[in-house]
Specification:
It is a single chain. This protein has 101 residues and is mainly alpha-helical. It folds into 2 domains: 1-55, Homeodomain-like (Arc Repressor Mutant, subunit A); 59-101. It has 4 helices and no strands. The protein has helices at residues 6-18, 24-31, 35-50, 65-99.
Amino acid sequence: MKHYPAEFKADAVALYRSRPGATVKSVAGDLGVNTETLRNWIRADDGRRTGAHAAPPTAARDGGDDVQAELAAARKRIHELEEERDILRKAARHFAGETRW
């Protein structure tokens, strides 16, 4: 049984939530974790959000221009990071293949 750092779990849940059309299975596959493991992390995060430590409402609900600009910049950065991740994943597969005899 693998143990993942809390930061990795939080990042995995955030990645899933940042991809509106993504399935748990596809994100889990991208990250190399079991589908049920990711699903459990999402459920645990939902429990924390609805509990006593729920995040306060943000200005995003107000629909302000600053928030929309920040959201657009964040989406652009997410896209860039996903591209970088994909490139690194391909490179890792390539180099892993070279080390096998």
